[in-house]
Specification:
23% strand, single chain, Jelly Rolls, 8-stranded parallel β-barrel, 26% helix, 2 domains, TIM Barrel, 475 residues, alpha/beta, 6-stranded antiparallel beta sheet
Length: 475
């Protein structure tokens, strides 16, 4: 069975890339243990003479802003929406693209109501159909019946983002099952560069450019050799403030699954040789994507992608299978709450609108989160104390007995990421541990059994000199 057959759910991106991965195999990655963390801290001290001056990778301004956004919506939209497929085979007629009520402002308003700060649109998926009037192929909106061939979905998308104060991102699939040059690597690489040039020069500021390594056969039965260095250099030249996503970065990495679950241990730093190219496969690669590395030499935080529905494109049969508010809140905790960013796919319907159920559940997720954050417990004092070269503690005391059910721990990642282990305890009466974990990073959210306390202490072990963390407690 192939992805082009009707009523077939194609493999996930990772499953597909595993089947067709090309190039060398991934390099084995070892999980950092306590001995390694201690050795790294010692090495930093020896190199600098002072643990407090040890340099660790830090985010760029664009990476820092990207992570602080916390939530973005992904919009898979195109001819697949009308053929009821996940992956088109490139033979779909452009005339099938007939959204009768397309309203990108509705998408943007729903994103804003969900608390998202950005949206990413599939400007081109693997079928090769382009949602903008490109000069590189006739397989685009220019050949559709929508707006008599005068429409431009990308234009409407970026305009809607700006009207609602959202950042705009674009995904242009490198795999193209329609273009006749695909598989003739030099020629198609020129085509792909031309498509990206159009997208990155016609529409103003683009904040994220999303790539994957999907690499199957084209119309001529051949597979393509992509020129990623040339592609990345083009983005840097045309949109220097944009972050680029892919398995191998260079700015943001895939988190290793499409379930919306980041690793419980999740370093924003990674050893780049562990994921040497886009599409690299193997257990060690997935572990590196999930967890990062305490001794990573580059800052490459994880983006956690998942769909609100079973599929990525809209299918009417999935209208009753939309993730619930509680499920979406859980996804927030396993992505944003694990030092990642949540990229939540919400596909437009054949009308060109987000489905009412999807919109309602997005708003419900935001309301549920806001209600939880409204339960912040005020405290009288907060004290940070360094207890050793790589240890410290933060004490939080309350004016009266409080019931705590959620903890929000944060590092100032502008100074890098350092915490390798943490423990939350209360010293009321007999000291007792309430929770523990490994990394914190930008944000670590933890739901705990409701506990009545008057004080909390967070003890941390770091890879080098401790930098103050923050702790918020919620009822």
């Amino acid at each position: 069975m192939t992805p082009s057959e009707d009523n077939v759910v194609p493999p996930s991106r990772r499953e597909f890339l595993h089947r067709v991965a090309w190039g060398v195999t991934g390099i084995a990655v070892a999980t950092a243990g306590s001995a390694r963390l201690g050795a790294q801290a010692q090495a930093n001290t020896q190199a600098t003479g002072n643990p407090a001056t040890a340099e660790r990778p830090r985010p760029s301004a664009a990476q820092l802003a990207w992570q602080r956004d916390e939530l973005a919506l992904f919009l898979h939209f195109g001819v697949n929406t009308f053929s009821d497929r996940e992956w088109g085979d490139g033979t779909e007629s452009p005339t099938s693209f007939t959204p009768s009520r397309l309203d990108a402002r509705q998408w943007a308003r729903a994103a804003k109501a969900a608390g998202a700060k950005a949206m990413i649109l599939t400007a081109k998926h693997h079928d090769g159909f382009c949602l903008w009037p490109t000069e590189t192929t006739s397989h685009s909106v220019r050949s559709s019946l929508w707006k008599r061939g005068q429409g431009d979905v990308v234009r409407e998308f970026v305009n809607a983002c700006r009207a609602e104060g959202l950042k705009a991102g674009l995904y242009c699939s490198p795999w193209d099952r329609n273009h006749k040059t695909y598989g003739d690597s030099p020629r198609y690489n020129d085509v792909y560069i031309a498509q990206l040039t159009e997208l990155l020069t016609r529409y103003g500021t683009i904040n994220e450019v999303w790539f994957d390594g999907a690499n199957g056969e084209g119309p001529n039965g051949k597979r393509q050799v992509y020129d990623w260095p040339r592609t990345w250099a083009l983005v840097r030249t045309l949109q220097p403030k944009a972050v680029m996503f892919s398995d191998a970065g260079p700015d943001v990495r895939w988190i290793g699954n499409e379930r919306g679950v980041a690793g419980e241990t999740n370093w924003s730093t990674i050893r780049p040789e562990a994921v040497p190219y886009i599409g690299a496969s193997g257990d060690d690669v997935i572990r590196a994507l999930q967890e990062g590395h305490a001794d990573g030499s580059v800052w490459r935080p994880g983006e956690t992608d998942v769909s609100i529905r079973p599929g990525w494109f809209y299918h009417p049969t999935e209208d009753t299978k939309v993730k619930s508010v509680d499920q979406l809140v859980d996804l927030y905790f396993t992505s944003v709450g694990r030092n990642s960013k949540l990229l939540l796919n919400v596909p437009p319907t054949r009308d060109g609108l987000l489905h009412p159920t999807d919109v309602a559940n997005l708003a419900g997720m935001r309301a549920a989160l806001d209600q939880r954050w409204a339960g912040v417990i005020a405290h009288a004092s907060q004290a940070w104390r360094v207890t050793g070269p790589t240890t410290a503690e933060l004490s939080v005391r309350f004016r009266a007995l409080q019931s705590v059910s959620t903890i929000d721990l944060r590092e100032d990642i502008a100074q890098g990421q350092r915490v390798a282990r943490w423990t939350l305890a209360t010293t009321d009466g007999s000291p007792r541990e309430l929770a523990s974990g490994t990394t914190i990073g930008y944000r670590h959210l933890r739901r705990i059994a409701p506990s009545a306390v008057t004080s909390l202490t967070v003890t941390v072990e770091t890879v080098d000199a401790p930098v103050p963390i923050s702790c918020a407690a919620y009822a």
